Amino acid sequence: MLPPRHYGAPYFDVDRRASSANALNMLPFSTEFPLKPASSRAAFVAEVIAWLQGTSYSTVLALGAEAELDGENAHLRSPTGEELRLRELRDGDDWSAVGFRHDFPDEEGRLWRTEGVLKRSAGVGAQELVRLRTQCFARTPGAHLESPRKPYLVKSLLKNGWGGNDNLLSISDQPFWLKENKKSLETAKAITLGEATRWLPILYISASDNNRWILNRREIEKLAYDLGGVAHVVVEPNRAFSLRLRNESDGRNVYGGTLGLSAPGAGIVKRYYLRWQMQGGKDLSVAVRAAASSMRSQMPAFGWDWTELQEQALRAHREREKKRLTAAENERLYLEEIENLQDKIGELERQISAHADVNVGRSDSDFEEEGFARQLGPEIYLGEISDRLRFAAKMTLDIADQIGLDGRTKSILGRVVERLRVAPALSELSRDLERATKDPRRVASELVSLLRQHGYVEKSHNKHIRLEAAEGFDGLEPLTIPTTPSENRGLINLRKQIERAIGINRLTN
């Protein structure tokens, strides 16, 4: 029996290759983001109660047991072994943190654990900070583990208006549609450079045309819904916006329909577009959801997890009540602290095991396009290597009979040509070259600025500008750019000469 959607099991599609019957634990799902100031400690507890009461499997709150959660330390247990713990940390007469841990044992020998801690005024601007984590680990040998998903509690917090501000963006499960204005351009630049948010990564969707994207509006809205509380989804309005953003960000932005995953403090670290592994919007959505969730789960934690809340609460209770505690009560508190430390050690061991299980023996990335790019050197545009491999396959098929190519190889190469899409960045580069060679008075400065972003460096500047391949861009032919204006025919010839020199004139066929 797998816990239903409300619990968080099967909220995201997962990579089944990461599952292992022998693994001690899977990588946990975790997220952390600011919330609006809570009206009371009871308001957060009420959200937890509503979440569990909305499930079809939980029985730990049966028969009005939620009344027992009013104290600083509560522990409920159902006959099936399901447990709910609640802990509050007080600061004088007021509370400073409240958290819960929910354990649900299923019939397949697994334990699904969800925990969350709300820490007061830990976010920017007196906002609260919530940290939530879900794990799945084995209770019996051979249990088939599943990668944990986002718990429905995250969705309900956002639905009920708890979402706070994450620097330039608000925590939401709706896409953020940029507009054609200066403020949106500044926001897009900050996203590209990693300066827009602190708590959540950003999935940036560039435009392939005016109000057109690789994903349709329904797919974008579904993506934002699924990633609410995990990552922001930001959508740019049109290609003209992309061009302005490119100038503002020194070419570090994504464009031409490409999706970019931006990490706080780092900027765009991953790019996605339709290609061999992702043939449609559904494949692309699955890939970016998994990547965003993985990135958020592995980001540094600033809030508290359950064991840290336990440690702080136990210590505070012992200090506050030390003059009134009996020897037996003191001993019980020390035993609770020891148990909590053992729990913390167990959590760390499971995390180490999970990282090892996921990373050891995973060489498949070496055969992906990004793996090729890492091994073969930098690309002059995103997807260049796959485009050239596709071209090589097509040329080989054209002379297949002359070289006596076998049927199986012809079949494989035919699939490469048919299924390997031409990268959208190629047509974007072609359009950029056409645009840069339109104005004879600005052709030199426009071309130099463009080609610097695609593998060239400037070597000399007299009557002509000489550009040569930058380090790692072997095979790019030297280019000579005239500094004096030229007639229209000369500009067209110059553009075609550049296309031949960088070898893109035949890749779109």
Write a structural description.
The protein has 3 domains: 132 residues; 109 residues, Glutaredoxin (3-Layer(aba) Sandwich), CATH 3.40.30; 132 residues, no CATH class. With 509 residues, the protein is α+β, with helices and mostly antiparallel strands. Helix 7 packs antiparallel against helix 8. The two termini are 51 Å apart. Helices cover 39% and strands 19% of the residues. A 6-stranded antiparallel beta sheet has the order 1-6-5-4-3-2, sandwiched between helices.
Q: Which labels suit this protein?
A:
509 residues, alpha+beta, Glutaredoxin, 6-stranded antiparallel beta sheet, 5-stranded mixed beta sheet, elongated
Task: Describe what is shown at a glance.
The protein is of the alpha+beta class and 509 residues long. It contains 15 helices and 16 strands. Strand 2 and strand 3 form a beta hairpin.
**In the residues, how many domains can be counted?**
3
What separation lies between the terminal Cα atoms? 51 Å
Beta strand count: 16
- Largest sheet at a glance? 6 strands, antiparallel
Please bin the fraction of helical residues.
25-40%
Based on CA atoms alone, the radius of gyration comes out at 28 Å
